[in-house]
Amino acid sequence: MAENLDFIRKLPDSLLLEIISLLSYKEATRTSILSKRWRHILPTSATIVLNERNGTIPTHFFAEFKRTRLTKTNQESHIDMLSLTLTKPQDFVNDITNCIAFSKEGNAKVILLDFSSPTWGENDVVDDYVGFEAKFDLPFCVYGLKSLETLKLFSCNFDASMLKSFVSLKHLSLGWIELSASSVKDLVENCVSLESLSMKRCWNIGFIEIKGQGLRLESLNIDKCNIVRGWINIEAPNIRLFKYSGEFCTFEFNSTQRIEEVVLDFGIQSELGEVGPLLFETFREFYAAKILTVCSFVLQAIVSREEPLGLKPRLAVKHLILKTALHENELYGVRFFLNSCPLLETLTIDINPAKRIFEEYEPPFSEPWTKALPLYKCLVKSLKVVEVKGFKGSQNQVSLLIYFITYGRVLKKLDINVSKEVVLGESPEIYIQKAQILQTLNKASPSLQISIF
């Protein structure tokens, strides 16, 4: 009778492997009681996953791994992915090394090692990074894994000069480690197939210089790294996506004709400074980008008395995303980008009142931002969609939307997503009422639809 209930034995090995690959290792081993064939097929599962943050106990995981994997040999064993997430790798050095060695034997394509602590805040300001030192070194046995395409090393040291042995490596993600400028340079030069590089909360990087013959890099993400000299030099003719979050840096870019998307977030910058001219030159480097995301700092800093209220030559941006509080200090910056993006088709205004507003800000002009507001080319020719997130109906929010409604000649959609917050006695119901008033205005575009969510 029990044999009749074991329907799993009727399934082909290929299907069982596909099912098991969708399960975490803990779930897969737990369900092995369902069938003898399940227990037999488990050692060939293509995915090994330990995530301490999801409740898996490393001691139990490694004991089960040793019992089901290392004690059984299977010539057909193949590993697609190894993913280990735990906070005290120093307590399991041999176990982790065994997992990595096993994955190498299985010609793994993906290895993800995250030994960072969940207590390390994403936005914490750290001066010396004492206590953040990596407690684990990438084992020598993994170098030379020719099948490896994706590698993630968080709080895990490595030898940059040895990365050249990863001839198929396309995606590299580094985080919470100390990096030298020479290490960054070496890894880019040595990983000849590299297409995407991400660096998160790495520290003591003197500067970042990324260039080389035949560089294939298409995506670069630098997230809150400690760049001592504040200088980034990129020469990557194939780069499509550039994302930067951190303190303000001087950027030097060459060969950016193919760039498609740029995200700049200087939200952790503590001082406004006089960086307007430097920002001016930075955006000139990104003239070809079609999607651009800028932060509140950029909106406050980019306009100065010395610079015109717009870039020349103009940007090729078609989708502009503003991370803003729509504070008075930011509104000349909003005008700057409307003027600089004559091909703009979609404008997203992501309102967050928690954005840092600098008290030392001085308006570049004496008249208010709304006075003699020009009719920018994008409003006449191209702007079709405006999306607003976090609408509360403040004076600046309403004034800006009135401008789009009354002058946006080709505008087709205005989507207003009201805030869920209750502030100073005003609730989402009141925000909706304010938004509904906008629906009654005369529209420059007869096809404009105003939706409130």
TrEMBL record:
Residues 5-53 form the F-box domain. InterPro entries: At1g61320/At1g61330-like, F-box-like_dom_sf, F-box_dom, FBD, LRR_At1g61320_AtMIF1, LRR_dom_sf. This is F-box domain-containing protein. Coiled coil: none annotated.
